[in-house]
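Subject: Sanity check before I submit

Could someone independently write out the structure tokens for this chain? I want to compare against mine line by line before I put it in a report. The sequence has 235 residues.
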Amino acid sequence: MPPPAPTPRLGPPTRFAVALFPGFQALDAFGPLDVLNQLSKRTPLTLRVLAPTPAPVSTRAGDGGGAPTTGQAVSPTHTFEDAMAAAAADDDNGIEVLLVPGGLGTRDPANVAAAVGFVRAVYPSLRFLLTVCTGSALAARAGVLDGRRATSNKRAWAWVTAQGPEVRWVPRARWVTDGNVWTSSGISAGIDMMYAFVADQFGEDVAKELADAAEYVRNTDPDVDPFAAENGLPN
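---
Independent answer below. Compare away.
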């Protein structure tokens, strides 16, 4: 009996989404998304901006100490419920890659309960999950990082790691890849992670061209992380 034919490698993903919640960090979302915007000039992509409801989602997270006094509001294109319906239909319209930003809003469990539930529910249908900064705390709460290597914002390290005691947290990393899950360190690290993801899926030549066009100097080594030592974390 002949051996089974190898499973063909799927092509690069083209259906992306970002999951927002009140108090998400602007650059966590918009840095990686602008990489995708520029990529879509050469490779047609779709992007869904998701939230619990169709109402605009603000980057501000309350008025407590440390909260910014300015912010921006983003109008979702779809709700979490819409995205789950597409995933259940299994008609090639579901999300392939989900991006989860962090931000001050992650600190309030009630504020991000819908996002955590959505990540938990949609993860089995995804090809890739990408988190930026404390977005990994949401994924950890959802249980999808258990047993995996992951990283996060170094200033919030103690709090983030407490959200997922079964996660194999990596303290010194710009970003970490474990299977189909990519997690980045704080805020700007998400841009480096997204360029690395583009290089992995679409080719290093494409990632370099996009970064050069943006006049962006990439960090291409995921293990170079000066902020771990600055925040007293071990190697």
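---
OP: Matches mine. For the report I'm noting this point. The longest helix spans residues 26-39.
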